[in-house]
Amino acid sequence: MMNQLHEAKNLMDNEQYMPAITILQNLNGLSPKAENYRLLFMSNCWHKLGEYQWAIDIADNLLQRDEHNELASQIKYLSYCELKDFDNALKEMLRFLSCNEADLYKVTLEELLTDIRDGFINDEDIVSKIKGFALKYDVTIDNPNSK
């Protein structure tokens, strides 16, 4: 079964997402760790194919099993963004950062700080949370308007 996970990953690396999904959907009886990889790979494949709701649902399933999986949270966040559901995208990022350390989300925090600076995010509660996490993880942006 591990060989099939590797085969699916190789297909994904070659942008052959549907064949990878076919393999992943037929895998059963995996160890918990291997099952987490299976769900992560499936979520990523659906995201790459533009099936964002499926990607969200599978990533959510994985996050229920492993709340510390930042890759699954990122797929969920990015899928919400693709669906133009920015409220749920921000909720997912804030939910994850509330109980986990940031790694991949540091870049996202930089982008959100830029959006705040440029006036695209104005909700005071959300701005406060984003700035709080940015401070916590020492994330800053250059502000060309500051002296």
SSE blueprint:
Layout: H1 2-13, H2 17-25, H3 32-48, H4 52-65, H5 70-82, H6 86-99, H7 105-117, H8 124-136
Helix pairs in contact: 1-2, 1-3, 2-3, 3-4, 3-5, 4-5, 5-6, 7-8
Annotation keywords:
mainly alpha, 0% strand, 147 residues, 8 helices
Give a nutshell description of this structure:
By secondary structure, this protein is mainly α. The chain has eight helices and no strands.
Protein model, in words:
The model has no long low-confidence stretch (mean pLDDT 91). This protein is mainly α and 147 residues long. The longest helix has 17 residues, at 32-48. It starts with a helix and ends in an 11-residue tail after the last helix. It has helices at residues 2-13, 17-25, 32-48, 52-65, 70-82, 86-99, 105-117, 124-136. The chain has eight helices and no strands. Helix 2 runs antiparallel to helix 3 and helix 3 runs antiparallel to helix 4 (52-65).
Residue fraction in strands? under 5%
Note poorly predicted spans.
none
Number of strands: 0
Strand-and-helix sequence, N→C?
HHHHHHHH
**Shape from CA axes?**
elongated
What percent of the residues sit in helical stretches (DSSP H or I)?
A: over 70%
- How many helices? The count is 8
Summarize the biggest pleated sheet. Answer: none
Average pLDDT score: 91
Give Rg in angstroms: 17 Å
Helix-and-strand structural type: mainly alpha
What is the terminal separation in angstroms? Answer: 59 Å
